[in-house]
Amino acid sequence: MSQVASTGLGIVTVQVTQPAAQSSNGIGASGDGADFINCNGNEQKLGVEVGAQTGFWNLGSATAQASLTAPSGNAIAVKTISITL
User: Over 70: is that where the pLDDT of 1 sits?
Assistant: First the structure.
């Protein structure tokens, strides 16, 4: 995300969708996860565990959307990711 939250506690929510057409076995999956982050005005890295809630993750591509909700404002980033071993 290019926007940096200045201060306070924020929450990052990540949603991942893998359509059947992008899965190695032709079966789609989706899931989400969230974690808190202490906003300090600097760009940070945060790992968020995303478990498949429908189906199972398979080798291939998926779309990930990360949303930051923070006192100083909100931001969203969308990216195509690769699911590999």
Answer: no
